[in-house]
Specification:
153 residues, mainly alpha, 0% strand
Length: 153
């Protein structure tokens, strides 16, 4: 009896490496990069490159959220994005790159979520999310994170 497998046209089967999370050294390096960027910004030593690093981490956390995300995760990601926008607005007004403690906490919460995602997400899902992030950056859209739904009163 022969077994046949059905594959979608143009799709290769995923390798073992693609099905597993990224290597620990890579996830630690990414995590360290994100947390150092946050620490530098929180101490008033930020710059545009560090802000972009944090924005990328926040957007990757959004793209890597589970298929049926808890709304609290999306709200936390929205809050982190808003905190980064406030920090950039201060810098554009020639103020310091420093951020408020509440903003730092909002961003840190998402970085911790993203650390967990990096440790557990299969590599192919990470690469798909990275591809979405790159397409978003090329298209120049405002934000990939949908606005919070307005409640009807």
């Amino acid at each position: 009896m022969s077994r046949t497998s059905i594959r979608r046209a143009g799709h290769r089967p995923l390798t073992k490496d693609m099905l597993l999370p990224m290597q620990l050294a890579r996830t630690r390096a990414l995590s360290l990069e994100h947390h150092l960027a946050l620490a530098a910004n929180a101490q008033g030593r930020g710059n545009l490159d560090l802000m972009v690093c944090l924005l990328k981490a926040v957007y990757m956390a959004f793209y890597l959220r589970s298929k049926s995300p808890a709304e609290t995760d999306v709200r936390a990601i929205r809050r982190a994005e808003a905190a980064l926008e406030r920090c950039m607005a201060r810098a554009e007004r020639s103020e310091t790159w420093a951020m408020l403690d509440a903003d730092k906490s909002a961003i840190e919460r998402v970085l911790l979520l993203h650390d967990e995602q990096l440790a557990t997400t299969p590599t192919h899902r990470y690469l798909d999310a990275l591809d979405k992030l790159n397409r978003f950056a090329l298209e120049g859209l405002k934000s990939p994170i949908p606005a919070e739904p307005q409640s009807e009163s």
